[in-house]
Design brief:
Radius of gyration: 16 Å
Strand content: under 5%
Shape: elongated
GO molecular function: DNA binding; protein dimerization activity
CATH class of the largest domain: Mainly Alpha
CATH architecture of the largest domain: Orthogonal Bundle
Protein name: Transcriptional regulator
GO biological process, one term: regulation of DNA-templated transcription
Order of helices and strands: HHHHHH
Distance between the termini: 50 Å
Number of strands: 0
Number of helices: 6
Helix content: 55-70%
Number of domains: 2
Pfam family, one: SinI
InterPro entries: Cro/C1-type_HTH (IPR001387), Lambda_DNA-bd_dom_sf (IPR010982), SinR/SinI_dimer_dom (IPR010981), SinR/SinI_dimer_dom_sf (IPR036281)
Structural class: mainly alpha
Length: 94
């Protein structure tokens, strides 16, 4: 699928899609990722991580991520939380 076709199908500007493809823009919105995944008939996980066998994110996870984004939680804060949670689980196993 060409950038022009993807732009027409998703409603996003060709220049925006091109900037993501070239790595100029590295922080696409969740709405962009969802629309592109839908048009390409792949999961959001596959689009982001390249993992084919993962189940697609369910609506609850998508809503939670959107809520976090809208409330001002940065990616760095979210990553910090995930790292803390992994550390805590390791501590619980000891």
């Amino acid at each position: 699928m060409s950038i022009i076709q993807l732009a027409e199908r998703t409603g996003f500007a060709k220049s925006y899609i091109s900037s993501i493809e070239r790595g100029v823009q590295s922080n696409p919105s969740i709405q962009f990722v969802e629309k592109v995944a839908l048009e390409l008939d792949v999961s959001v996980n596959y689009l982001i991580l390249g993992e084919k066998n993962e189940e697609p994110l369910d609506e609850g996870w998508i809503e939670l991520v959107v809520e976090a984004m809208n409330s001002g939680v940065s990616k760095e804060q979210f990553r910090d939380y995930l790292e803390f949670n992994r550390w805590r689980k390791k501590q619980d196993k000891k």
